[in-house]
Design brief:
The structure holds three protein chains of three kinds.
Chain A: H1 2-19, H2 23-59, H3 77-84, H4 87-119, H5 125-133, H6 140-162, H7 165-168, H8 175-204, H9 207-215, H10 220-231, H11 233-248, H12 252-257, H13 269-279, H14 283-314
Helix pairs in contact in A: 3-14, 4-8, 4-11, 8-11, 11-14, 13-14
Chain B: H1 2-26, E1 44-50, H2 56-69, E2 73-79, H3 86-96, E3 102-105, H4 109-114, H5 132-135, E4 148-149, E5 153-160, H6 161-166, H7 176-188, E6 192-195, H8 202-214, H9 219-228, H10 237-251, H11 262-270, E7 274-281, H12 285-291, E8 297-300, E9 313-316, E10 320-323, H13 330-342, H14 344-353, H15 370-380, E11 384-385, H16 396-408, H17 414-428
Parallel strand pairs in B: 1-2, 6-7, 9-11
Antiparallel strand pairs in B: 3-10, 4-10, 5-7, 5-8, 5-9
Chain C: H1 5-32, H2 36-41, H3 53-61, H4 64-95, H5 99-110, H6 116-130, H7 136-159, H8 165-172, H9 177-188, H10 190-206, H11 209-214, H12 223-228, H13 238-270
The chains are: A mainly alpha, B alpha/beta, C mainly alpha.
Organism (chain A): Aquibacillus albus
Subcellular location (chain A): Cell membrane
Family (chain A): Belongs to the binding-protein-dependent transport system permease family.
Chain lengths: 315, 430, 273
């Protein structure tokens, strides 16, 4: 390590000596190459995501209904409405937050568990990996319809056969079962996704490090918590962030599984925003909600990323 | 190997962009008419965006026949399915500038929302043949007509005649007590009375709640009164009576009505597991016949009391064709709509292919099944009440549905139900 | 390594979980060969009569070959573009640790929490003016814009763990920046590239709302769009719909089987130290 550092120093030293006069040139070149690498991504991103988002910010200060050509500026009125007279929005926020906490925890634990499982020298490894990943191949709405069917019909018939109380619950029919129903499907679908990322990370661990630790007598739990997890902390950051943002944005699954019901108890924020903008024809109010939501989620996720980042550095 | 793959991919990439560019133009060259309309003049394109996937193929076939007669007009149909929402998609299309020339409008509240985009159709030749009930939704306060009713639909309680006989019900129940009695008889003979689908918000939140709205002495002025704050849901007689009906339906219904969605509900009835299908209409016919082609069925009304005049079915216009005022081809669009309801071919499609109950007095309904017939009988006898849910404030039916779900789950009492109805209306009205 | 008893137990657990995972697929497969009334009345049981005709019917009904080609074209071009632009940007952002890079990174990443529905209307307004509507290249550009956040995020996280020495060495050898990236760095990124490809493929292949809003020309229809015609507001043709679903997911599963090898063995090959 030290020699390398010295080499580097030497290298830069030589460089500066040689190109002292051309310092500006180097700088320009650097800026150019930075632009060449970053600009394409930034360009598409700005055009497709940022500009529409800013237009949305504008609409959040209006009372636009989504159809009319007249767009009336009403200042902060929409934001006031959200904070003073919208218990539904508050309820759906609480639901989403609760859902996010539970499902993020479960999904990552299961996903990491599956990745560890598949890191063993199993004979059926390739098949299992594919099977765990398969839930991802059925998209959005259809997935919800299929599960709705399993919960209401499949569980009921299993319950009649076995008399296990778990299957005899009124699945999706009351607040608790609807909540857990969505959690189950989310975990079922997303843990395979997280597994893929964890596997990639586990594969990246230098085998010699593991061997060395094993030689030192590290086993099982210690090996896992002291060596493996610290080594792949960045992938935890990634997975946490992904599950958090997905859980926060959950829409398709709710719509098709419970429709936000029964009695709006599983209405996620995304559904609430959608209803407001498109069914209640309050596009301005809907976007105002989505911007508040955006701010809340980015604050939360930035905080989370910073927290895990810190641990990464410490490790 | 890898290089080749990369090369191939980038080639694909470039060609895709090229293809994408030319694809847009390819379409305007027109492809359908073999009769040789390529005399320099480009055909006018009428772009129709609709949610009626169930008749999408038949519509295509009808459009093809139209194009044969009118070689200068091209019909481009696009159906929206997949359980996706039509209204948001329509708004998005208008935002992108890809405005359809003909699209769907539900009337009343929705007419007001879209009016600035709609062409006035009052002077069209077909207007004189529209049944009065069909004009109502798309007529504005100045008496102008902005849409053509697609069809008529009606709902109530569909009942299985055979199961009723088995339970010894000889007389068709028309009042609340008679309905309860029938349900009890069914239960005594081991038959579940009702298939109740409270899993879908629109079954309680539109169809059921419509009944107390429609049974007001003058439902239009009752609703106007709600908007102005002069009438009230709390304390209204029909709404008080509505409780009785809901209680009977739930007491004699299938298990878990709150998780029963549309498909399950209809299947319960069609497979003979229940004797009645509550809050559903003639649109279920095709699905029921598919499961049991021999089904012998008809409509009962949804009664609120024991008065003699309870035997009324809610009949209305579910959707209307509307023409985009800013379209370049308004005239072509109007031509198409007129052809559809006045030419022999068009009329035939409406009745025999789409199996619609026409909202026109000059189209003879044929090809409709038992439920359609039942609706026609009620309509002819004047025993109908209106559909009021298109007059609800936007988003209100979702809330009504969720309130009734809450009541069905036993979370709130009926007094709270009425208070919540009122609160929903007050907070969502313009 | 030898196959131990404990490994066998782990294996059994794995298989048990796998069976649990497969239950919904049982429903899909079994019902895709049933008639419509049978699905409604008897969904959980084996079919009375296996109807492969569902598949042949739906094949023609939704013009599957055409839809498949469209889906393929959209997915492949979008993925190639996303991988190229986001890996390049991620590398530069990691290797140039200044304020600008940090800010850019945060903006890229935090945009992931914006629900699509909220930018839907403005996006369509904008793309209407830019002429991105009703063409394959238009929707591909949109996928570039939407896909770049997640992909850049994943690449960014991975590149941080890649040592810089090799790059430095290559630079000394006179490699241009592009050369360094494409010849040295990109091959090392293989496992994460495979991950990015898989995740984006899933999303784009199954995406419904965006194609619906952008691709109005029936000739441009992707598989989800074509399939959706089978699901009306009231009447859902489950028999056809599930058969179409099976047709649509088979390519994706095959693709995953093909790519997963690269996630696994990739790093060993790349971990030159």
């Amino acid at each position: 390590m030290e020699t390398k550092l010295k080499q580097k120093e030497l290298h830069t030293h030589v460089k500066t000596k040689f190109f002292m006069s051309a310092d500006k040139k180097v700088k320009i070149k650097k800026v150019l190459s930075y632009t060449a690498f970053v600009a394409p991504a930034a360009l598409f991103f700005i055009m497709i995501q940022i500009i529409p988002f800013l237009m949305g910010v504008y609409y959040s200060f209006t009372s636009w209904n989504g159809v009319s050509s007249a767009v009336e500026w009403i200042g902060l009125e929409n934001y006031k409405t959200i904070f003073t007279g919208d218990p539904e929005f508050y309820n759906s926020f609480m639901f989403t937050a609760k859902f996010m906490l539970v499902s993020v925890l479960l999904t990552n634990v299961i996903g990491f568990g599956l990745a560890l499982l598949l890191n063993e020298a199993l004979k059926t490894r390739n098949i299992l990996r594919t099977v765990f990943f398969m839930p991802n191949v059925i998209g959005g709405l259809l997935l919800g319809f299929i599960w709705q069917f399993i919960f209401t019909k499949g569980f009921a018939s299993v319950g009649n056969l076995t008399d296990i109380p778990f299957f005899k619950l009124p699945w999706l029919g009351n607040e608790q079962t609807a909540f857990w129903g969505i959690v189950i499907v989310f975990c079922w679908q997303m843990s395979g996704y997280m597994m893929v990322i964890f596997i990639a990370a586990l594969q990246g661990i230098d085998n010699s490090l593991l061997e060395a630790a094993k030689m030192d007598g590290a086993k099982g739990w210690t090996l896992l918590t002291k060596i493996i997890i610290p080594l792949i902390l960045p992938s935890f950051t990634i997975c946490l962030f992904l599950t958090i943002s997905m859980a926060f944005k959950i829409y398709d699954l709710n719509i098709s599984l419970t429709g936000g019901g029964p009695f709006n108890s599983t209405q996620s924020i995304a559904i609430n925003i959608y209803q407001e903008a498109f069914h209640n024809n309050n596009y301005g109010l809907g976007t105002a909600k989505s911007i508040l939501f955006f701010i809340a989620v980015s604050a939360f996720t930035t905080f989370q990323v910073m927290l895990t980042k810190k641990r990464e550095v410490e490790a | 190997m890898k290089r080749h793959l990369l090369l191939l991919l980038s080639l694909l990439f470039v060609s895709a962009i090229a293809v994408g560019c030319s694809e847009g133009n390819a379409e305007t060259t027109g492809s359908n008419s073999s009769t040789g309309s390529e005399e320099g003049e480009e055909p006018k394109e009428v772009y129709i965006f609709h949610p009626k996937v169930e008749i999408a193929d038949q519509l295509e076939a009808m459009a093809a026949e139209f194009e044969e007669e009118y070689t200068d007009i091209d019909i481009r149909l696009e159906a929206l399915g997949g359980g996706a929402d039509y209204r948001p998609a329509l708004k998005a299309k208008f935002s992108s500038g890809e405005e359809p020339d003909i699209f769907i409008n539900g009337g009343f509240t929705e007419l007001e929302l879209w009016k600035e985009h709609l062409a006035d159709l009052s002077d069209e030749p077909w207007v004189e043949h529209v049944l009065p009930i069909g004009k109502e939704p798309m007529t504005d306060s100045e008496g102008k007509l902005y849409g053509m009713p697609i069809n008529l639909e009606g709902y109530g309680i569909v009942y299985n005649k055979k199961l009723f006989e088995e339970a010894g019900i000889t007389e068709k129940p028309t009042t609340l007590s008679e309905l309860k009695e029938a349900a009890q008889k069914l239960e005594n003979s081991g038959i579940t009375a009702f298939a109740a689908g409270y899993g879908e918000y629109w079954i309680p939140g539109e169809h059921l709640i419509n009944v107390p709205f429609a049974k007001q002495d003058d439902s239009a002025s009752f609703i106007q009164g709600l908007n102005e704050g002069t009438t009230s849901i709390v304390g209204n007689e029909s709404f008080e009576q509505f409780k009785e009906y809901i209680d009977i339906e739930l007491a004699y219904a299938n298990d878990n009505p709150l998780t029963t969605d549309y498909n399950t509900q209809v299947t319960l009835f069609a497979s003979g597991e229940t004797a009645m299908l509550a809050g559903q209409g003639n649109w279920t016919e095709a699905m029921i016949y598919e499961i049991d082609p021999e089904m012998d069925m008809s409509f009962l009304s949804i009664p609120l009391s024991d008065e003699a005049d309870e035997d009324l079915l809610p009949v209305g216009v579910p959707n209307n064709w509307a023409v985009n005022k800013n379209s370049e081809n308004v005239e072509a669009a109007k031509t198409f709509l007129n052809w559809m309801v006045s030419s022999e071919t068009g009329q035939q499609y409406i009745t025999e292919q789409f199996k619609f109950i026409p909202a026109f007095d000059n189209i003879e309904p044929t090809g409709i099944g038992a439920l359609g017939e039942s609706i026609l009988e009620y309509s002819k006898a004047g025993k109908t009440i209106p559909w009021t849910f298109y007059k609800f404030p936007s988003g209100a039916s979702h809330e009504f549905g969720s309130t009734i779900q809450s009541y069905a789950a036993g979370n709130i009492d009926y007094e709270t139900v009425l208070e919540q109805f009122q609160a929903t209306w007050d907070s969502l009205k313009e | 390594m030898s196959y131990k008893k404990s490994t066998f137990i782990v294996e059994l657990i794995g298989i048990a979980i796998a069976i649990l995972f497969l239950v919904p697929f049982y429903f899909v497969l079994v019902n895709s060969v049933k008639s419509f009334p049978e699905i409604l009345v008897n969904a959980a049981s084996f079919p009375n009569k296996v109807l492969f005709s569902n598949f042949s019917k739906v094949w023609g009904l939704i013009n599957f070959p055409k839809a498949f080609l469209n889906s393929l074209l959209v997915t492949v071009t979008s993925i190639v573009g996303i991988v190229v632009i986001s890996s390049m940007a991620a590398w530069k952002l990691v290797r140039t640790p200044n304020k600008l890079s940090q800010i850019l990174f945060i903006i890229f990443v935090s945009s992931m929490v914006i629900p699509f529905q909220t930018v839907m209307i403005p996006l369509l307004k904008l793309s209407g003016t830019l002429g991105l509507i009703n063409s394959i290249h238009g929707i591909v550009i949109m996928y570039f814009g939407f896909g770049v956040s997640l992909s850049l995020f994943l690449f960014h996280g991975f590149i941080k763990t890649v040592p810089t020495e090799i790059e430095e060495a290559a630079r000394i050898d006179g490699c241009s920046e592009f050369g360094v990236f494409w010849r040295i760095v990109f091959p090392i990124l293989k496992p994460i590239t495979a991950t990015v490809i898989i995740l984006n493929t899933l999303w784009i292949w199954n995406d419904y709302l965006l194609p619906l809003l952008v691709l109005q020309n029936p000739d441009l229809r992707t598989i989800p769009l074509a399939t959706s015609a089978l699901f009306a507001q009231y009447q859902k043709q489950w028999d056809m719909g599930l058969a179409a679903l099976v047709l649509g997911i088979v390519p994706i599963i095959a693709f995953f089987l093909f790519l997963q090898k690269h996630i696994i063995k990739g790093v060993q090959a790349g971990s030159i130290k």
